[in-house]
Amino acid sequence: MNNLVMPVGEEGKAKALSGFLARLLELGVVDSMVLPVMTVPGIMTYLMARDPELIREKAEPFAAVMPVNAGSPVARTVSKKPRGRIGALLKPCEVRALVELVKLKQASPDNLLIIGIDCTGTVDRNEYKKAYPDTSHLDLREACKVCLNPSPPDTAFPGINIGHIGLDDEDALLVSLSTGLDPGVAAVVEELGFESDGSLADRRRSAIAALREERDCAHREFFLNSRAEQNGGGIESIARLLAACTGCRNCRVACPVCYCRECIFDGDVFDYETRQLLRRADRKGGIKIPGDTLLYHLTRMNHMSLSCVACGMCQDACPENINLFSLFARVADRTQSLLEYVPGRSQEDALPFTTFREDELEPR
Amino acid sequence: MGIGGGTGMESSVGFEPKIVAFLCNWCTYTGADLAGVSRIQYPSNVRPIRVMCSGSVDPMYILKALLDGADGVLIGGCHGGDCHYVNGNYKARRRIAVLREVLDELGIGSERVWFRFISASEGALFADTVKEMVDSLKSLGPNPTKAMWIT
Which residue of A has its CA nearest to B65? Predict the structure, then answer.
């Protein structure tokens, strides 16, 4: 790990970082750079830039809003006949989602240069749009309030991390080059003339630890509240919480780690014949249509909860404002601790469903 | 009446649980067959579905059975080291362990899902497992999803 200090001039941190990203593109380190930009005032999107000037003009690397978890669209840029190298500036939960997709063989890591950036939280995108440009007073999204990973994982990819937590008073950003980084890339970055400095890295590390500690309490409280809100056990209580589901599947689309190319719920299994529906309706007195919504959520939890990076995009996507995040985060926390898996931490940790130990999980 | 519609016909008096059983072709299904040809008596509450490997049973199918009103789901796989496909049974064990966590965290409870390793030569074990499961499900009572239509 090589920690460099990027000086920030009068134009501010956003411009300094945009300039750095544009420079990487100009110097041929990457063939294109994916980064958040402002399309129209208040509306953020991601841009896959080929023109460095577009980056200098439009980039908004610090905007506290997240329209999509970019992990999955970035994975898609290198999922089919990958060539060249795509750079991407990603928030910690986006990096972690991307790591999961790489492990699921849906992206080629050799064709990516991931530039992770610290994130202290994002706000609701609709509120952001309304309040823009004065967005500093907005409340963080529920998922961000209890996020324990404000910094990108050091071990996820051989890439670059941009640090700013705890460095608000500094006219500098921390640029960390990870150990396995392509020497060609490292050489180009080192030639930009940033100085090496360990003290900023130490300050950032302790600020992150403090933030995590603060959020750890909120995190535990959030889980307790969510369990209490469910108001007793039984399948009826969970059916009530999900009763408003219209089966739109937006949560599945927004979920960066819901990985199947074709969902089982879109397949023949759920393309019922009338007689099948009638038989079920007969047994139960009637059936909700569109149906299988409870089954859909429970199945999704089984399929993706081990890789859930707790980004909360499912909840943002829900037109019925169902509290999906609390349910999915709770379940993910349980299943991940059962199999001692930390999604997005490293490409080396095998996906739990692809491996096993002979002596585990007994009694069945 | 709440979210359950239902006919109200189900009561725990004379309640006979329905068990959907996903049985591995190479071991438990053959074990069940052995129980039959050996004339071992066991309750007829089980509806076997032959699958090629316990590792091929997606949790979706287990959940679907449970939400459609099955009182229990039994998944039968080979003993450790005996899987015809090398390690499908170990992977099934992980999947089902995860399913149980999901059900428990959401307060649904995982006691209706049983996963057992039963070999082709263990007809008696299959029969005993079904007996044990039927007893356990009888004391649990009917699955509330039988009369629930918002699944």
Answer: A295
Q: What is the DSSP letter of A70?
A: T
In the numeric block, which tokens belong to residue A90?
């990603």
- Which SS3 state, helix, strand or coil, does residue A46 take? strand
Is the Cβ pair B94, A339 closer than 8 Å? Answer: yes
Q: What share of residues in chain B are helix, strand, coil (percent, to 5)?
A: 40, 15, 40
List of residues 6+ apart from A221 with CB closer than 8 A: none
Task: List chain B residues with CB under 8 Å of A291.
Answer: 151
Residues A44/A65, Cβ–Cβ less than 8 Å: yes
Are B134 and B63 in contact by the 8 Å Cβ rule? The answer is no
ipTM given for this complex:
0.93
Between CA B103 and CA A238 the distance in angstroms is 10
Q: Which residue of B has its CA nearest to A328?
A: B102
Of A144, A189, A204, A111, nearest to A325 by C-alpha is A144
What's the CA angle centered on A300, arms B65 and A228, to 5 degrees?
Answer: 90
Query: Are A364 and B93 a contacting pair at CB < 8 A?
Result: yes
C-alpha distances (whole Å) from A306 to each of A16, A40, B42 are 37, 36, 38
- DSSP code of A194? P
* Candidate from A233, A286, A354 with C-beta closest to B149: A286
The average pLDDT across B21-43 equals 97
Tell the residue number behind the tokens 């796989």, with chain if given. B77
SS3 of A42, please?
A: coil
Please tell me the pTM assigned to this model.
0.94
CA distance A50 to A56: 12
- Each residue's pLDDT tens digit, B75-119: 999 999 999 999 999 999 999 999 999 999 999 999 999 999 999
Give A15-48 pLDDT, tens digit per residue: 999 999 999 999 999 999 999 999 999 999 999 9
Helix boundaries (H) for A285-339: 293-304, 313-317, 324-338
**Residue A272 structure tokens:** 């019922």
Q: How many residues does chain B have?
A: 151
Q: Is A278 an interface residue toward B (CB < 8 Å)? A: no
